[in-house]
Amino acid sequence: MRKDSRLSRVLHALIHLDHHGKPATSDDIGKMLGTNPVVVRRTMAALREQGYVSAVKGHNGGWSLARPLSDITLYDIHKALGDSSVFTIGLTDEHNNCPIEHGVNNALRDVMHEAEALLLARFKQVTLANLASEFGQHSV
Length: 140
Hints:
The chain has 140 residues and is mainly alpha-helical. The protein has one domain (6-133): Arc Repressor Mutant, subunit A (Orthogonal Bundle), CATH 1.10.10.10. The protein is 53% helix and 6% strand. It has helices at 6-20, 26-33, 37-49, 74-80, 99-123, 128-133, and strands at 53-56, 62-65. A two-stranded antiparallel ribbon has the order 1-2. A hairpin with a 5-residue loop joins strand 1 and strand 2 (62-65). Helix 2 crosses helix 3.
């Protein structure tokens, strides 16, 4: 099963932007994350729309933080990336007429919604500055 690692990858890039203190190009971020610069531009554009990053074109241009890390939470970035489910677990719909499938799906749906609500509540409490402080003693 494929994992959605966009959140952790974007957090990685944002903390690097803060540590470097200068703009980074989509190419630079793409190399750091091992992804295509087009993917970086699309992702960063979503963050720019929400006011978390800014971009400057031209020589010495690139992406920069538009807010301090202390003003951005995990929840903020999760929402900016499209508010997808935090779980890759899915419900089945292969046997729509089966009452057992309906029962299992209902039970899983309730538990997953409860777990997701708890996780998202915790995301609201953790700022990117909290994450970055873990790396204060390490060079990045």
